[in-house]
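Researcher: Quick one. two chains, 983 residues in total.
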Amino acid sequence: MNGILLQLFQDTLVVLIAPLLLGWVNQCRAWLQNRSGPGVLRPYLNMVKLFHKDAVLAHNASPMFRFHPYILFACMWLAASLVPVIATDLPLSPAVDVIALVGIFALARVFVSLAAMDIGTSFGTLGARREMLVGFLAEPALLMVFFTAAAISHSTSLTTIVETLAHKQFIIHPSLAFAAVAFIMVLLAENARIPVDNPSTHLELTMIHEAMILEYSARHLALIEWASALKLLAFTTIGFALFMPWGIAEAGNWGALPLALAALFIKLTVAGAGLALLETISAKMRIFRVPEFMGTAFLLAVLGLLVHFLHGN
Amino acid sequence: MIFASTLLPIDVTFGVIVYWLLLGLAGLLLQNTRAITQYIFPAGALGALILAAAALGSLGGAVNVAVLPLGLPDLPFHLRLDALSAFFLLLLGAASIGISLYSAGYFRDMPGNTLGLLCFEYHVFLASMALVLMADDAYMFMVAWETMALSSYFLVTTDHKVPEIRQAGFIYLLVAHVGAIAILMCFGVMQGGHGDYTFATMRSAHLTEFWSSVTFLLALFGFGAKAGILPLHIWLPEAHPAAPSPVSALMSGIMLKTAIYGILRVSLDLLDAHIWWWGVLALTLGLITALFGVIFAAVQTDMKRLLAYSSIENIGIILVGIGLALTFHAFEKDALAALALTATLYHALNHAFMKGLLFIGTGSVLHATGERNLGKLGGLIHHMPKLALLMLVGALAIAGLPPLNGFVSEWLLLQAFLLSPGLPHSYLNMLIPVAAAALVLASALSGYVMVKFYGVIFLGQPREKTLHEAHDIGIFERLGLTWLALGCILLGVFPVFVILLIDPVTQMLLGQTLGSTAAQTGWLLLTPIQPERASYSPLILFLIIVVGVIFTIFLVKKFYHGRLRRGPAWDCGFPEQTARMQDTAEGFGQPIRQIFEPFLGVTRIVPSPFDKKPHYHGESRDRLWNLLYLPIARVTEKISVMVGKLQHGRIHVYLLYSFVTLLALLAFIR
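Model:
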């Protein structure tokens, strides 16, 4: 019963704080660029605005186009609620392990790309093609990062991984260092951040994610934006779970929950600022440099796994 | 033996084979389109259903054997129905139910005489595949194998008036026979000089390590030619598109699996040696095949060729599983081998359903539009919504996405990879993570391929005017497609039951099963090792996504005013959108072509800016043609010229040859 309560609490928590993280990253970026910034609550206000508008659909939009925002939102919500954000005994956790988690991200990506192709505009298909290009390299890299963690903890269940890694914090795993770098690169690519994509531009030469959702408006767009925020939160918390699992409450330890919540907010604040810094100091890449970037991430992750086995043997 | 007092499963399965042959003959005699499509094909589907039920019933039961008083004197046909045969018969039956039902609708416009012949070949093809799976001696096996090759050759060349199709058929027949020779030699080695070609003798003949390995290599070559393992894949992308769609579905979905059956039968049942490099060889070949197949699939512009290359990829994945199973088996880690083998068999079953579904679906597209080229399709979701929905299931399944079936088998295979460390061989321990990475890369690319396949055909604006007249599918087609799509969903959502089905096979080949561990926490949760190591529940995942979607829709409906307008597409304010501005299949595959350019042989004709009628042409060719096959062809030609010199057409020279041969034989044999 407690577990179900915890799961419900986490589901609500992630869905509510996801836009906050996005707002925080944008605000930090604005500060770093010497702008005053839109405020951390901007994403919420944007969504309120979008939910008030009339939706416009292109004449030839099919049900695929209309259903996709809901599927995307559900997938990302599920992904974000599976990660042990504040405690490890999530009742949903046994149903979906890390490989399935990668599968959920892939499912969402395929739907985004298909919906982008649905109207048949030049930008939509261009975005879909680029998204799949980034995705086919990011997905194996992410899986390899997970495999490194799984090889250390002998489990592909995210909660077991967190419990193992949290106890081994004083043993240095060189393999995890490789994995962490690879993971950050994947995070940037998967969440359409600089240097792979630029979330704040509509320049046809560079855009990937924005090109795919050009045709969306009002509630559909709001759901997609919310889903993107959830995805960013999911990736960030996966990063915490793998590389900074301190503070996450373990099974049955209810007293640690407030502390875990505080730890989560501190980590999110730091990570958001770090992400903004990373985005500010790097430049957007040409689209055909992206495969090199992602290839590097993939190789680093594989190297991490190899290092683990070398080390272990 | 056959007409025993109680009806054994083997009697039923053999009965279905006879029934199929009779149906084929009836079709040949009737030559009436209406009768064949409305009665014979559905009757064939009924036979397939009975076959699947009998195979299902005999899985886990006792081994059935039968001896047919046919064949040559003193060389009767032996049949055997054990767990391995039963599993593959189940695959054959279950997938061909959908394909036969579909055929009943698909061939409705074909003239009676052509259709009569096709119906005969089709059912002979089905029957021969079933016989291959039940054969218990090399003689029966080869007869069935060759019947299968020949009947499918004639099916491939149904449209024999087109030169390309004749050529495709020729290549297919050639590779099939090169493979068959290797299989024949493999059986020759295995009988070990006893002169008895039953599989029972082969099982008891203990070969030395060297001869075992020779047999294994011959089997891998021979069956690999049928399965499309690199570099023997060249016939596959030619023959599959050439055949009528239901035949492509049979060949890709089922016939390729008979080759997998052959590899498993020889390596784990008949030979059963513990030699680790067999596994590594299969693993490496499988990975190369998978990556090759998927990269080429990404750059195809013909929808059926694309699917053919995707079949090569999936055969690669299956071979990776076999390789892992053989490696584990060699090191006596049979529990892990059972996991890898289960993943392999699961993937084989999945592939039969997904590829069957996609191939027959392309048949409907072809029927409705007359177009196979992806560059001339588009927007079919508006005109063929039912087909679009069913094909979406197939595309998502083959892209390996949860909660559908393609994901489960890949998940199991990855679990097997993750457990591999601990092999007493440090190089292997290093190699296997890299292999896992390559496998994951291939499966991620298959997502790319499927977005391209589905998006270009069904989404966007129609690229040709004629597409507006496309009509949705008829009742038989819908039944066939629905059956296969349902299979994809059920196989994906209830993995524990499928694993329990596969258990008798792993028990027979390895003496270990996965089912008891997989179901240790109930049927809802799939746990291949221990629950805390790995667990997956597609049903829960599926339900949560469904509940999430419904909940979100409910909330949005409740709080949103729900006004909706239709307008022209926005596209950053550009007003003159035409269908030509969308990505074509070539455009969508362009990034892959660019990344893997050194690997693909790309020829491109780019128009100059001053062309009055600019025409772009790009083609990605298989480099192995130039690197491997053309040299072989040249050498063969040279050799035949040399051999030709022996032929003078003068009788005394030939007599001299006979005399010399006789002398030589006398000298050798005495």
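Chain B touches chain A through 83 residues (CB under 8 Å).
Researcher: Thanks, that's what I needed.
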